[in-house]
Design a protein that fits this description.
This protein is mostly beta strands. It has helices at 2-15, 52-55, 441-445; strands at 57-58, 66-82, 92-108, 112-124, 136-151, 155-164, 186-195, 198-209, 217-218, 222-232, 240-255, 258-275, 278-291, 294-308, 317-325, 335-336, 360-372, 375-386, 393-394, 400-402, 411-425, 428-439, 451-461. The longest helix has 14 residues, at 2-15. The chain starts with a helix and ends with a strand.
Length: 462
């Protein structure tokens, strides 16, 4: 596919070369493409991009709300890893990931919509058998219908049914899993309510279950439901408050304390905003329920804050993230205290995605700046500890990565990360990251070692 990548890159860059004199382009491409709105392109006078005719094809001459929109993505990503899984499996791995998506969005007036997205995810040159989210040659990623039974000048209620994606708040518990080839998807029903200053949704779903060959099915062992409310403090949606409840029923869940069916309920709140150069994102979650015969009580708290010099050349920002996710302090006391981050965002701590945010404490100071237009460079140091010495360290899918042992050391390691992102132009994004995870006594006593990770990604979208 190298020739296809080169041709598409050439055509995209040539099709939409931007400069300071061009009109304002359409909204940025979003992780969930069905959230993009191209209705403004009904006015052909605002067309500035060679792909605009594909983003808005009028279906009725007398009604601009009847239209068809096409989109897609080609992503090529290289990952090189030394000591994957802390060297407990193989000494090194490296592979090429390729993702291709094509979507069609049909709007039949303001009250009916159908969206469908196909996907292909391939992996090449890997040393170990790939997980299903990395190797799925052809599949149906999304297919849903939106119906709008309530619509006026103030508010809107949408009923969504089918297969769709979700990203709630800052993605700490429900997000898109963008780094692997195949993102998260859910089959079910969603209610979305919107009015000035407020957004709310409620859903009942089963997660999609990836299969390398054959269309993906539902995970019949898992049911996921919840409600999420956001109140915006400003019209630009820079500050607000989230309140939410998420419920999970999963058969045969595995933690260091054993294997059992679980029913877990999460109550959370998030406060976020920007003011006078400062930005902040504070979130807390409490979980309760049952794990077999054990009672669940788990929790997490996180702080992500920083200060930006927006009027200074390069717009530097100093930031710090701090997370605590509880772990099980005694596997035999009848309480399950391991926090479950549910369907959290990939790259939660860094692009290497080594750890699941469970039984972890970390503090991550960072600096970022913009050395050129549409380019951002960031670097940070993330120090990790175990919350409980009796619990394990888990990998992102939730499997035990380093078992809890009699080693009493809480210190897990320190990760250095450097990241570069360059939006070449609207349709092309180049990014790269390097992470090295220095380990210590706890990992070494289990036979593991430090981890090095490098990625480079080319992403083309229309």
């Amino acid at each position: 596919m190298r020739w296809a990548t080169a041709i598409l890159l050439f055509s995209i860059i040539g099709a939409s070369a931007e400069d300071e004199e061009t009109p304002k382009p359409p909204p940025a491409f979003l992780p969930l493409r069905f959230n993009e709105d191209y209705s403004r392109l009904a006015d052909t006078k605002v067309h500035i991009d060679a792909f605009d005719p594909l983003k808005y094809l009028r279906l009725r001459a007398d009604d601009p709300t009847w239209y068809l929109s096409f989109g897609g993505e080609l992503r090529e990503r290289v990952e090189l890893i030394s000591n994957p899984n802390f060297g407990l499996d193989v000494p090194r791995d490296g592979y090429l990931l390729q993702r291709i998506t094509l979507e069609a969005d049909i709007h039949l007036g303001q009250r009916f919509r159908f969206f469908v997205e196909g996907i292909s995810g391939l992996i090449r040159d890997e040393n170990t058998p790939p997980p299903p989210p990395q190797d799925d040659p052809i599949d149906l990623q999304f297919a849903f219908v939106d119906m709008v039974p309530w619509l006026d000048d103030i508010q809107k209620l949408t009923i969504r049914a089918g297969r769709f994606g979700m990203s709630l708040g800052s993605g700490r518990l429900v997000a898109t899993r963008a780094a692997p080839n195949i993102p998260f998807k859910f089959d079910g029903v969603e209610l979305l309510y919107d009015r000035e200053g407020w957004e709310a949704l409620a859903f009942l779903t089963r997660p999609g279950k990836e299969r390398a060959y054959g269309f993906d099915t539902e995970d019949y062992d898992t049911t996921f439901w919840g409600a999420y409310l956001t109140h915006w403090f400003d019209t630009k949606h820079q500050g607000g408050l989230d309140l939410y409840y998420l419920g999970l029923a999963r058969e045969n869940s595995v933690y260091a304390s054993g294997k059992a069916d679980q029913h877990r309920h999460s109550l959370g709140s998030r406060y976020f905003g920007e003011y006078a150069g400062w930005d902040w994102n504070l979130e807390g979650v409490v979980q309760f329920g049952s794990f077999g015969s054990d009672r669940i009580f788990a929790w997490t708290g996180s702080v992500d804050a920083g200060y930006s010099w927006k009027e200074t050349a390069g717009k530097p920002r100093l930031g710090v993230k701090f997370d605590v996710a509880s772990g099980d302090r005694n596997p035999t006391d009848g309480r399950q205290e391991s926090f479950d981050p549910l369907f959290f965002k990939s790259g939660y701590f860094n692009d290497a995605s080594l750890l699941r945010p469970s039984n972890v404490i970390d503090i991550h100071p960072s600096i970022s700046f913009e050395p050129a237009r549409r380019m951002e460079v960031s670097a940070g140091v993330d120090v990790f500890w175990r919350y409980s010495t009796q619990d394990a360290i888990y990998d992102p899918p939730g499997f035990i990565q380093v078992p809890g042992t009699n080693n009493r050391s809480r210190y897990l390691g320190t990760a250095l990360d450097v990241n570069v992102s360059w939006r070449v132009q609207r349709h092309a994004l180049l990014s790269s990251s390097y992470v090295y995870f220095f380990t210590d006594n706890f990992v070494h006593s289990a036979g593991g070692n430090g981890v090095g990770f490098f990625s480079a990604t080319l992403q083309l979208e229309f």
